[in-house]
Amino acid sequence: MTIGRLNHVGVATPSIEKSIALYRDLMGATKIHEPFDLPPQGVRVCFVDTPNSQIELIEPLGENSPILKFLEKNPLGGQHHVCFEVHDIHAAKAEMEAKGAKVLGEPRIGAHGTPVIFVHPKDMGGVLVELMETPKDGGH
Ligand SMILES: CC[C@H](C(=O)O)C(=O)SCCNC(=O)CCNC(=O)[C@H](O)C(C)(C)COP(=O)(O)OP(=O)(O)OC[C@H]1O[C@@H](n2cnc3c(N)ncnc32)[C@H](O)[C@@H]1OP(=O)(O)O
Ligand SMILES: [Co+2]
Question: Mind listing the GO molecular function terms for this protein (predicted)?
Answer without folding.
Answer: metal ion binding; methylmalonyl-CoA epimerase activity
